[in-house]
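Q: What structure does this chain adopt?
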Amino acid sequence: MSNVSGLSTSAIAALSTDQIQDLTTADIVSLTTAQVAALTTEQIVALTTAQFQALTTSGVAALSTSQAAAIEAVDVAALKTSQIVALSTAAVAALLTEQVQALTTSGIAALKTTQVQALTTEQVVALTTAQVQALTTSGVAALSTAQAAAIEVADVAVLKTSQVAALTTSAVAALLTEQVQALTTSGIAALKTTQVQALTTEQVVALTTSQVAALTTSGVAALSTAQAVSIEVVDVAAMTTAQIAALTTAQVAALATEQIVALTTSQIQALTTSGV
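A:
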């Protein structure tokens, strides 16, 4: 079709799906943002993968929420990273879960922080393990408390240590106990002191023995008295001597009788050596 760029928006909207599919990639490239915005959802559905890939970034940015939701999953999978970055936050939030799951890992990694923040909890739940692992540290840091709590337990278990360390303190505090228990020992060891301090007493109780043993000495020292008292007796007994030696005077004074009784001889010696 010649001189497509000269067609009015109403003329564009009046094109049949067959006529839309007859447009060359050069025609698609020539579309103005107003013409792209004029495309009906039926026309969007009719676009071929090659035609979608030909859309300019300004054209992608012009897509409405209903247009974005009408893109075929196979076409979403073929979007260039530059096109994904161009999606408006409203368009990102409007994507169906099957469209979100169709995004490539490179596409997920390309998401801007504002786009990550735009993801609905349903979309976060729908993310595959590979997609969660593809989130950048800045993307992870942008997650809201509701989004963090929506990450599937299986996906929490495969978070990179850099991603765990990128979680905000409010996101850490929002994690469900089953999510906390899913963190690997290397993930626990990667927690910053501010993140350890953000753990709720319920989360501390939920920590497994191996997770407690994985806390760094600085992490142990950062625990509040309420957190220290919340450590399960069996977990106290399994703490390393270095961790025991890191306990503050206030923490030791706050320990429950059953926690003190659970201390081994070497742990008691570690306390004595540390001067507590």
